[in-house]
Amino acid sequence: MNSLFIDTGSSSFTEFLGAHAPNLLPTRAQTLAAPVGEQIPHATTIVAATCEGGVVMAGDRRATSGNIISQRDIEKVFRTDDYSCMGIAGTASLGIEVARLYRVELEHYEKREGRSLSTEGKAHRLATMIRENLAMAMQGLAVVPLFAAYDPARDGGRIFSYDVGGGPYEQFGYHSIGSGSIFARGSLKKLYRENSSAQDVVLACLHALYDAADDDSATGGPDVTRRIWPVVSVITADGFRRLPDDEVAEFVESMLETRMTAPEGPTAPLR
Fold it and tell me: Are 227 and 220 in contact (CB under 8 A)?
């Protein structure tokens, strides 16, 4: 018999169990089952898709802490320079901080070198910053971005995704991240058309976010009563442009009108 269990050093079995098998205690088990990372607000679904001469990125406005809606109007899509942007999923506070720091990083490089980083350079620099957060990600404080940019060398948009270890992984046509990404990506798979106009791609992205919100409780759909709309950005040779709320509202109204007669959304033709 192990001598450790001959003399427990205490007449309290609870103290003994807490020292050697704390996960068996009801109160400890609850604590271990809900790590701090799950109590911090998390950003969710981001979608991006290329369009003719550029790229569109859109994000819903909901942040959640476990099963609680912690914020209804959070912003998850950020301009990083004149020709790029990033969306965040994961720990919201860290994601916002990474987006701010990354923007300064690109500005600093441009001032020091007198030129901008290439699109690949921008994507790889962001990968390095994400990799530096790996230790915190292992503790549940992960940040996973989606990066999109207009590449003048290709005269078109490009999309890069990441994991907690960095990346980047170039995605072609469209991509989505966050808890509702599987539903958003499925929606884009049937709605996306290569070389579509920016307006058509914006509408497709809004449909994708709507489908994600329909099946994922952590993703928020357009809030018509509060006038809270998704954040939508378009990047072309003319630079980064965030669509104003009144313009997004028009797209949303058009989408909702379609959904009134077809609740499951538009379907892709079989031929």
Answer: no
**Percent of the chain whose pLDDT exceeds 70:** 88
3-state helix, strand, coil in the chain (%, to 5): 40, 25, 30
pTM (2 decimals)?
0.84
pLDDT value, residue 32: 44
Q: How far is CA 31 from the centre of its chain?
A: 27
94-127 residue pLDDT tens: 999 999 999 999 999 999 899 999 999 999 999 9
Looking at 8, 44, 225, 236, which residue is catalytic? 44
Instruction: Of 263, 249, 259, 142, give the one whose Cα is nearest residue 202.
Output: 249
What is the number of residues in the chain?
A: 271
Residue 145: beta bridge partners? 88
- What pLDDT is attached to residue 4? 54
Q: Which residues contact 131 (CB under 8 A, 6 or more apart)?
A: 165, 166
DSSP secondary structure of 111-169: HHHSSPPPHHHHHHHHHHHHHTTHHHHTTT--EEEEEEEEETTTTEEEEEEEETTEEEE
Is 258 considered catalytic here? no
Alpha carbons 59 and 77: distance in angstroms, whole number: 6
Q: In angstroms, rounded to a whole number, what is the distance separating the alpha carbons of residues 174 and 40?
A: 29
Instruction: For residue 46, count CB atoms less than 10 angstroms from its CB and return exposed for 0-12, middle for 13-18, buried for 19 or more.
Output: buried
DSSP letters spanning 255-266: HHHHHHH-TT--
